[in-house]
Amino acid sequence: MDSLFTANGKFNPNETRGKVISCKGAVVWGPGQPFVMEKVQVDPPQKMEVRVKILFTSICHTDLSAWKGENEAQRAYPRILGHEAAGIIESVGEGVVDMKEGDHVIPIFNGECGDCAYCKSEKTNLCQRFRVNPMKVAMENDGKTRFWTLDGRPIYHFLNTSTFIEYTVLDLACVVKIDPHAHLRNMSLLSCGVSTGVGAAWKTANVQTGSSVAIFGLGAVGLAVAEGARLRGASRIIGIDINPSKFIKGKLLGITDFINPKDLERPVHEIIAEMTGGGVDYSFECTGDSAVLREAFFSTHDGWGLTVILGVHTSPKMLPFHPMELFDGRKLVGSVFGDFKGKTQLPHFAEQCMRGKVNLDEFITHELPFTKISEAFQLLMDGKSLRCLLHLSD
Question: Which residues does the UniProt record annotate as the domain Alcohol dehydrogenase-like N-terminal (predicted)?
């Protein structure tokens, strides 16, 4: 049993508060290199920071892209990746008054300070200082890392979170307190994938009852879009993916029609136009592929169609459109974290999930101990998992 808990399982941080913690972390030393389970020294939280014991973490395609080194901005090593998780606050730093030891929390890569002009605006969920930033590799407070090797080498942070470790240090702006009765196992999914997809349907697109939707890419985010569209009463939800196994899960999450581009001799958007009488009302691009983005855009109805970009585009290619192609009434918008304001809006979404509005269990396809993180990544690469949940607790 971890020293954070007593023999009967009661929370007790007295042994660790204010001290450097030596714990297990999955360290990446270079692009595509194997994860190495190492003893990592984790500093106490500084001003406006919290230290969290991670109990569950899962793997997103963004983690996979970063591990491969596909984005130049993410090439800082050694590094601790991971950004989808849930845990318990072990200790808090100076100035933290709205959270305390023992609180149940989820980290968010797109933070919310609550004080800047962005956070005070209803027009955006970005934050001036704590928005998602793959260039950022250290803490906001002093520009230093809180992770160290046993011989004193710095280990860099990732996406404001770094959850592939037993204890992590987070800026207060990047931590969301949730109901202590919520099952942390499921709540970890709200750190990224499910919130991003459902939020894109509810908040970014504002999908209307009776509308039609096309989703390009049926990973966890795409299927979360489907769930969000279903809950909004969309009459037709078309899923597009080259992996036919995704269609089975898709049916459980509201998808009504399926298209495998490999089975077609014509562009997907032409097929969708025929199926829907001119195109869908909303399309969602969840692959990060510019050619797929073009198909998603033209799968919407001219005059009013809206395409939401959710995929992470690591390629240097620019948008695959001529400016005049935007003059037919179709619109294109990007969505970060489903347009949820993390700290002010995510707790309510978590409560909705607790009441069963969103079936989070359907997104967890595998569960493994933390030490098998490489196996979990392989499952994602092979297209066999949506979310593989890693257990960090004993």
Answer: 47-177
Indicate if 253 and 126 belong to the same structural domain: no
Residue that is last in its domain, among 321, 336, 351: 336
Catalogue the active-site residues.
Answer: 60-62, 83-84, 113, 116, 119, 127, 131, 192, 387
DSSP letters of 2-66? Answer: -TTB-TTS-B-GGGTTTS-EEEEEEEB-STTPPPEEEEEEEPPP-TTEEEEEEEEEE--HHHHHH
Tell me what percent of the chain is helix, strand and coil, each rounded to the nearest 5: 30, 25, 45
Segment holding 170, helix H or strand E: strand 167-171
Work out the percent of the chain whose per-residue pLDDT is above 90.
87
Q: What is the DSSP letter of 196?
A: H
Give the tens place of pLDDT for each residue, 144-203: 999 999 999 999 999 999 999 999 999 999 999 999 999 999 999 999 999 999 999 999
pLDDT tens sequence across 256-278: 999 999 999 999 999 999 999 99
Domain with residue 306: its CATH number is: 3.40.50.720
